[in-house]
C-alpha cells in the first residue's frame, strides 16, 4: 500500500514530465530520503515506541520573501514545524538541538522514516525539531496550493535560498522561545534536504554549529560531475548483482522497440506487462522500467531485502517464461509484488511530483543523461532542450548555473578546506546519486563518511535489528564526529 503509493509517486514525477513535454525529464529521479517501504512500522525497527507521538506541532508566521523590501514581500504564510522536548537537557545546560530540514515533500513522511534524530536524542540530550519545506504539506503560501502553484509569479518564491532562510528564522524563533541562546544546533537532511543542510552550514554558521548531509549530491550541478554518473551506477549495481540479469536488461530495450513496431505490437506489450491501461507507445513502458524499477531499486538498494537482488532474482528466475520480455516482467513482479496491473495507471500527481518539477526546472537542474557505458540506451543530457521544456511549462527558463553561483561546488576542496568546517557528507556508494556526492575528506572537520554497500540516505533512517555492521559503524562514526563538534563548542563557550 505505502509501497505502491510511493512507487507511483516516483513513477509519476518522472513519467508525467516525459509525456507533458519531451523525453529529457524522465531521467531526473526524485531526490528523497524515503524509498519504497522504509517506514517506521517496519517490524524489525529497534526502538519500540513511535516517536511521532512525542512531537508537538507548531506554525510560524513566515515571511514570504526574505530578500526583498517591496510591500508584498512582507506577506506571511503559516509554516509547520514540530518539536520533541522529551529528551532535551534544557537551556540551562545549553543542551543541543538537532534540526531536520524538510525537503520536497510534506514533513509527515520524514517524521515516520527518518529516525536518526530520535534514535540519538537520549545520548545527545537533544531537542528534536522537524521543519517543513515551503510549498509542501501544510506550509503553503497564498492561502491554497492551487493559488500557490498557479504560475511563475507565485512559484517564484519557491526556491532553496528562501527555504534555508525560512529555516534560519524558525530556528532563531525556537531558541528565543526556549531561551536557549547558547544551545548548539546541528542541522540534518537527506538527499535534496542534505544539500540544504550543507548549504545551511555554509550560509548560516552563526545558527548551525554543524551539518549532517546524507546522500547530498551537491556536485551534480553544472559540469562538475559527468552527466552519465547516475545511470552508470545503476548499471554497475545490477552488473554486480548478476551478470546475466544485467545482460538481459541491456538486451531488452531493442526487444521492446521491435515488438512495439509490429502491427498489434503495442497491445501485445500491454498484455505481456499487464499494463493498467493500454500502451499508446513504448516509451511509457521503457521510462517506467528505467526509473520506477531499475533506478529506484538501485537508489534504495538497502538491507535486508536489497531490491536490486530481488529484481534480478525475478529476471534470472524466468518464472514467467524464458524469453527476454517475460524475464523482465518477472523482475517487475518480483520487485512490486503481485498486483492486478503494472505500468501506465492513471493516478493524480503527488505534491512532490508537482513541486519537484518546478524546483528542477527553475534551479535544481541536475544534469542526468545516459552514456555509452550502461545497460540503458544512450541518451545524453541536452541542456538546451531541457531549458526549452521548462520554459514551455512555466514561461520562465531554467537557471542551470545558479546553484554553483550561489552555493559553489567547483574545486570544492580548494575552496572549502580553509573557509568552512563541521560538515559530514555521508554516502552509500551503491546509491546512483553518490556520483554527485562529496566522497573525499576536505579537511579535519569536513569529512566524507561512506559505505561501499550503502544506498540512498540509509544512515538517517531508523535503526533496525537487521542493520549490517557497516551501517552501524557509519552511524557511530557520524555520532562521534558530531560529539566532537559539540565538545569543542562547549570548551569555547566556557572560555567565552
Ligand atoms: C500570524 O499572522 C496572522 C495573519 O497575519 C495573524 O492574525 C496572527 O496573529 C499572527 N500570529 C502570530 C503568532 O504572530
Ligand atoms: C535554570 O536556571 C535557573 C537560574 O539558575 C533556575 O532558576 C531554574 O530553575 C533552572 N531550570 C531548570 C529546569 O533547571
Ligand atoms: C504471486 O502469485 C503467485 C501465484 O499466485 C505465487 O506463486 C507467488 O508466490 C506470488 N508472489 C508474491 C511475491 O506474492
Ligand atoms: C484525483 O483528484 C481528483 C480531484 O481532486 C479527485 O476527485 C479524484 O478522486 C482523484 N483521483 C485519484 C485516483 O486519486
Ligand atoms: C557514444 O557512442 C556514440 C556512437 O558510437 C558516439 O557518437 C559518442 O561520442 C559516444 N559518447 C561517449 C560519451 O563516448
Ligand atoms: C576522513 O575523516 C574521517 C573522520 O575524521 C576519518 O575517520 C577517515 O579516516 C578520513 N578518511 C581519509 C581518507 O582520510
Ligand atoms: C559488499 O557486498 C558484497 C556483495 O554482497 C560483499 O562481497 C562485500 O564484502 C561487501 N563489502 C563490504 C565492505 O561490506
UniProtKB/TrEMBL annotation:
**Is-annotated flag, keyword Endoplasmic reticulum?**
no
Any keyword Glycoprotein? yes
Protein name from the UniProt record = Lysosomal Pro-X carboxypeptidase
Q: Where is the signal peptide?
A: 1-22
Alphabetically, the GO molecular function entries are: dipeptidyl-peptidase activity; serine-type exopeptidase activity
Spell out the InterPro entries in the cross-references.
AB_hydrolase_fold, Peptidase_S28, Ser_carbopepase_S28_SKS
Tell me, what's a Pfam family for it?
Peptidase_S28
Q: Which domain of life is it from?
A: Eukaryota
State the family named in the UniProt similarity comment for this chain. Answer: Belongs to the peptidase S28 family.
Question: Keywords assigned by UniProt?
Answer: Glycoprotein, Hydrolase, Protease, Signal
GO BP terms: proteolysis
